[in-house]
Structure formats: C-alpha cells, structure tokens
Amino acid sequence: MRQRLEHARSIAYQAGELTLQYFCNARKLAVERKADASPVTIADRETEQFLRKQIAERFPDDAVLGEEYPHTEGTSGFRWFLDPIDGTKSFICGVPLYSTLIGLEHEDRCVGGVIALPALGELVWAGIGLGAWHETKQSEPRQCRVSTCSNLAEATFLTSEVSTFGKSNRREAYNRLEKNAWLTRTWGDAYGYVLIATGRADVMVDPMMSDWDAAPLLVILEEAGGRFTDWKGNATIFGKEGVATNGILHESVLHCLETSTERPE
Fold this sequence. Notes:
By secondary structure, this protein is α+β, with helices and mostly antiparallel strands.
C-alpha cells in the first residue's frame, strides 16, 4: 500500500502539470457533453490516459476505475479510482479550484487517497495509519487536522452546486443547513473537502457524487480526524452522496438532513 500511495502522489503531481498546459487556455478548449450532460475536454481524457499508463507500467495487476474510460480488471486485490479533472466546470471557466483525484482500495477497503490542486500548488494525501498530509510548493508537508468547531451556528458550510439539491429533490436539506450554519459558500468539488481536512471549513455536503469523486475522501477525512459518510451516516464512498465534517458536527448535520421534509425520488 505504501508503494502504491507514494506512486499515487508522484503521478498526481505529474498529472497536475499536464492539466496546467491546458488550463492557461481553458476557455478556448472544445467542450463535449457526455450522456449525463456533464462536460468533458481533451484535458480530462489525456490526463486519465497518462494516469492509467503510469499505473499499468508500475502495477500491471491492479484494477482501475476512472471517469472517462472503461473499468480495467485486476488480480492483485488493489483497485485505483481516477478522476483526472474534478471540477471540470471550474476548469473550463478558468477557475483554479479544480483537482486531480486518486483513490486506492485494497480488498474492498479504502486505504489511500490523493487530491492534487495543480493551479493552487497544493496536494493533500492520506493512507490508513499514516495520517493525512498537506503539501504546497512553498512549504514542507504538514499533518492535516480538521477544525475544532463544536457549534453548527458557528460553522462554515460548503457545497459544490446548490442546484443539485433541487435536482435530487432535497432542496429543504440545503435550506435547513444554510439556516443553521454561520456561513455558506460554494467552494465546492474536491477543493471543499480539502478545506474540511485542513481545518479551513467545517461542513461539506453534496447530494450527488460519483464513486471516483468520493474515492479519496474517506481516508483523507478520517486520517485528518473528521468523518465522511453518506446521508445516513454510513462510512462509504459508494453512497452517491457525501457528508464531510470535523466529526464533532457530524450528528448535527445528519439531523438536519434527516429532518428535512423532502426525500429523494
């Protein structure tokens, strides 16, 4: 696991540099729409191809599940999750809050995760029993710790896109959290979860997520002292939704979600 995690950190940095070559002119990129209407560009596809190639060369028996290409089967018990550009909408608008995500699973257990923020020069990574770490180009790695906020009324609440609450018939959940939190912002996608893990925000909730979006988050949040669950409180990356907190506020947030009058269809 340690060897794979070190490799994940290395290739995440390299993949980030690849995305930056396109980011400078991102607003001029051709944007296609996938079946689910989400945008995709050549930068997404080339970055995932690069990551898959690096993994295959070093760990050819590992499985790979990525956003842009079909699942590759493996025999080693390890599986990699890849999201080459998380926050493609931000990317194509020239906003630097996009990221490259790598999650690592062994025998159906999440064991490692990496979030690289190329345009910000930041990287967060974690492994089971190894802690969570925050790196920048300007400073030495430091261990991540979530905030100590103990009152939702004093908490900063983040989400990726407010409209997704309505699309999943959960707008009342958003309204309740916004009402009860001190500050609400859409510093979203994986960047928001980095803010939770590094103690710069307290609550992050998304009603719609893919497996590759969530794959690195469980380990990173737990190793930083927080929690990542689905809306029912299950610690999983497969819930198609996410709740991340500093741990202290988790039950209060789940209560807000449970007591919402609307339910997903």
